[in-house]
UniProtKB/TrEMBL annotation:
Native organism taxonomy: Bacteria, Pseudomonadati, Pseudomonadota, Alphaproteobacteria, Hyphomicrobiales
Tagged with keyword Transmembrane: yes
Membrane topology qualifier: Multi-pass membrane protein
Function: Converts cobyric acid to cobinamide by the addition of aminopropanol on the F carboxylic group.
Name of this protein: Cobalamin biosynthesis protein CobD
Pathway linked to the protein: Cofactor biosynthesis; adenosylcobalamin biosynthesis
Family statement: Belongs to the CobD/CbiB family.
Originating species: Microvirga arabica
Transmembrane segments: 60-80, 86-104, 308-327
Gene behind the chain: cbiB
Subcellular location: Cell membrane
UniProt entry keywords in alphabetical sequence: Cell membrane, Cobalamin biosynthesis, Membrane, Transmembrane, Transmembrane helix
Length: 328
């Protein structure tokens, strides 16, 4: 799909998802593309990840599973594009609606805002309940500052892999590009863990997800830096300094970029040592500000996030206009 076709679809998808998200009634009726992808991943995990196999055999099985997943997802998305694209404007609108389900601007905002609301209305227990919906760490080990940092870290990281990355691949590859990315990202979230069951089988999924998120994580950091320049009380200079100083020290090759940018912009420290389940993870701090984050800082982070999303839309619209001018 040419950029002159895929970029307008991206703009429409971003606008539609920001306006209405993915309706609960639709989710109840038919599920969500991520849940469909998740069922396939679960089936591949159950069928190909055999306890009796050696580490090497399970790693090879994981590679096969990833190839099956990407092939099935890519062919389905390509067939939908081939069916709808010849329909002209109606086809573009339908493709944009389908693609909007692969972007999560509105739902991410709602989930993170719920943490701030929970802290304000129900104290630490309300914050813990809300943050448990978006992070994997043990919420009972978190105080108010820990809950607030966890929410802001999730906002920054998911801005990259839940919004900018699918938008990036949608812009360059149309619906198939976004769907393939979402399949890879969902596989990483389900099986890309260093656990006895998935360390070998999920290796390919984790490494591939790291690769396809490289451009979006860098772009996400730049968008947050730019957003900080538009907000009083936020510092684009400190955001940039934090990215340069800290991003490469994160245990993830991608998450550190938006997290460091958000931390620097808000004058916070994010990431650092934390507990997942009963396992303590030692990680480098992102940013050199205060670690005592609050519900007010979540609100500030959400304001930056909304501006960064608007800048992403502006970048997509400008790119679509440029592609149209070049293609004339």
């Amino acid at each position: 799909m040419a950029l002159s076709d895929s970029l307008p679809i991206l703009c429409l998808a971003l606008a539609a998802e920001a306006a209405v998200g993915y309706p609960d009634r639709l989710y109840t009726a038919i599920g969500h593309p991520v849940t469909w992808i998740g069922r396939l991943i679960k089936g591949l995990d159950q069928g190909l990840n055999r306890d009796a196999w050696s580490f090497r055999e399970r790693r090879m099985a994981g590679i096969v599973a990833l190839l099956v997943l990407l092939t099935a997802t890519g062919l389905t998305a390509w067939a939908l594009s081939a069916l709808l694209q010849p329909l002209g404007l109606i086809g573009i609108l339908l493709l944009a609606i389908l693609a909007s389900s692969l972007i999560a601007q509105r739902s991410l905002h709602e989930h993170v805002a719920a943490v701030s609301k929970g802290l304000r209305e129900d104290g630490i227990e309300g914050g813990r309940r809300a943050v448990s919906m978006i992070v994997g760490r043990n919420p009972q080990r978190l105080d108010e500052a820990g809950v607030s940092r966890a929410a802001i870290e999730s906002l920054a990281e998911n801005f990259s892999d839940g919004i900018v990355a699918p938008a990036f691949w949608l812009g360059f590859g149309g619906l198939p590009g976004a769907a393939l990315y979402k399949a890879a990202n969902t596989a990483d979230s389900m099986i890309g863990h260093r656990t006895p069951r998935h360390e070998a089988f999920g290796w390919a999924a984790a490494r591939f997800d790291d690769l396809v998120n490289l451009p979006a994580s860098r772009l996400s950091a730049l968008l947050i830096v730019a957003a900080a320049a538009l907000h009083r009380g936020a510092s684009p200079l400190n955001a940039w300094r934090a990215v340069r100083r800290d991003a490469s020290h994160h245990r993830s090759p991608n998450a550190g970029w938006p997290e460091a940018a958000m931390a620097g912009a808000l004058g916070l420290r994010l990431a650092g040592p934390r507990v997942y389940g009963d396992v303590r993870v030692e990680d480098h701090w992102m940013g050199n500000g205060r670690a005592e984050a609050t519900a007010d800082d979540i609100v500030r982070a959400l304001a930056l996030y909304r501006t960064a999303c608007a800048l992403l839309f502006g970048l997509a619209a400008g790119s679509a206009l440029l592609a149209w001018i070049i293609g004339r």
